[in-house]
């Protein structure tokens, strides 16, 4: 199936010449996703720069029953923002919608931005006004606010500030039938019926095109302390988390788990990454304390908390960053993990959350079961331990055939997801469902929840034109 010439003409007719392209070279980067797992086809890219134009596009799509695929920075990891291989889906990019619409409001704790603004640009705008926008991901230089809202993105500061959903005060979106939902409020409290912004957040573009948002800002963080600790096992990492929370309260803003294999990969393959310790440990934790109080010295607080953790046997060794440069170097180890795995061959990846107390048992069982099934498989299990969120990745055995290993993705994931759900966890902590996990959602989600989700999709998008086939398969379409 391809896009019909009369449908193409109908889109062009409602847009100015800068707002669409049929140039294959311009379209090409939008057709492949970051992990190279999905390669799509589409012959037209729509790139409006205002909400009215988005609404006109959606109306044409709805009237003519043409599927639209919404894309922001294209850093999503579940294939949701890339058109399918059929060639019949029209690409709608929000990347030209980059205005900061609303300067910091009277109280200085909110910011209105359009959907195509990158997370990094929002962070910098907030910083320039002595404020903090706390959402932080390794992809923040490219990921957009619209994408972060649509995936309810998480990242490294969820422990203190929550996911994207808790950082939105108001939202503007074009609904699948073309109406504009004007919800750009700055209110912290608004109990006037169903909360559409919360529904659209995490809907992965299936219920509306997010065009702008009012974001919640926090006081800027003026002092930081970062440490890297070597541990003997994951149970100690959890004990250390509780210990640090008790000792440091809400000054603990990040707590990330890193395995030895992950540290070896980044030290070996990534520029300016080196193992900060002389002795090797099976597990590491990267943690950060921060405070908005300029006068607070956090290094002694962190050192003292780590010293008592060491006395109690939770920590084998620790390094506290002595400068901003060293702190950046420690964070680089964490942020380089995803990229570094590419150098070790194929990797089968999962984005899970578990009740924290089950994490050590999960890691032990999944590792044993997979070693039995694929001798030599190399687990690289890391992530946001403070949120119970593990990126449970499994790298091919050394020297194995990459394609043959990746062919086992479905089989291995079934085992990993079955164990996750058996232990009370979720098969998607922060990346979403996209196209990758539609079958998994069908298998594991509560049937009543699935049926309600389908009814919501049908009510808002009766012609199934927005991101069809993402999150839910819709029988009859
Ligand atoms: C190296 C790396 C690290 C990452 N780390 C994290 C992490 O720590 N935490 C985390 O949560 N994610 C992480 N991600 C995943 C990804 O970066 C986030 O999900 C991000 O929020 C996606 O933003 P985007 O603009 O790139 O969206 P895209 O990839 O363009 O789209 C993602 C989904 O949102 C939809 N969408 C995009 N824009 C809109 C819009 N305006 N309206 C409606 N729907 C829209 C798309 O259709 C698609 O379904 C990481 C990705 C990479 C590559």
TrEMBL record:
<dbReference type="InterPro" id="IPR016171">
    <property type="entry name" value="Vanillyl_alc_oxidase_C-sub2"/>
</dbReference>
<feature type="domain" description="FAD-binding PCMH-type">
    <location>
        <begin position="38"/>
        <end position="220"/>
    </location>
</feature>
<protein>
    <submittedName>
        <fullName>D-2-hydroxyacid dehydrogenase</fullName>
    </submittedName>
</protein>
<comment type="similarity">
    <text>Belongs to the FAD-binding oxidoreductase/transferase type 4 family.</text>
</comment>
<dbReference type="InterPro" id="IPR006094">
    <property type="entry name" value="Oxid_FAD_bind_N"/>
</dbReference>
<dbReference type="InterPro" id="IPR016169">
    <property type="entry name" value="FAD-bd_PCMH_sub2"/>
</dbReference>
<keyword id="KW-0285">Flavoprotein</keyword>
<dbReference type="InterPro" id="IPR051264">
    <property type="entry name" value="FAD-oxidored/transferase_4"/>
</dbReference>
<keyword id="KW-0274">FAD</keyword>
<dbReference type="InterPro" id="IPR016167">
    <property type="entry name" value="FAD-bd_PCMH_sub1"/>
</dbReference>
<dbReference type="InterPro" id="IPR036318">
    <property type="entry name" value="FAD-bd_PCMH-like_sf"/>
</dbReference>
<dbReference type="InterPro" id="IPR016166">
    <property type="entry name" value="FAD-bd_PCMH"/>
</dbReference>
<dbReference type="InterPro" id="IPR004113">
    <property type="entry name" value="FAD-bd_oxidored_4_C"/>
</dbReference>
<dbReference type="InterPro" id="IPR016164">
    <property type="entry name" value="FAD-linked_Oxase-like_C"/>
</dbReference>
<dbReference type="Pfam" id="PF02913">
    <property type="entry name" value="FAD-oxidase_C"/>
</dbReference>
<dbReference type="Pfam" id="PF01565">
    <property type="entry name" value="FAD_binding_4"/>
</dbReference>
